[in-house]
Model the fold of this input.
Amino acid sequence: MSIRVLFVCTGNSARSQMAEGLLRHQGGARFDVHSAGTNPRPRVNPMAISTMAEHDIDIGKQVPKDVKAFAGQSFEYVIVVCDRARELCPTMPGAETMHWSFPDPAAVVDERARLAAFRDLYHGLKRRIELFTTVATKE
Done:
């Protein structure tokens, strides 16, 4: 049985999508990984896709989903990756909820700085997920 994980952010277009791709890549079949947003955008941010592609992780086929679509499903872990979504994230009974605060790289105005912000996000998520995979268990 896989450990079910749901990553949540506001738009489900960058942070949670990148986290989903990273955990799927690093955790393999041990995890059943999903992501969703409290106010999903129409598509995954192209910079999120290209940043992940720099590390041979393809999230190009992932699509933003509304967190409401997961209501009633069970998860071992719900990981909220932005502050705004933390306030709006519904409670998932039985799930351990974690909050990893990452700034929104898409909000950075300057294009070069935005690319650096996406790369910083990748490395920050990678470190957290490496630690998470060593301690995550299924009850």
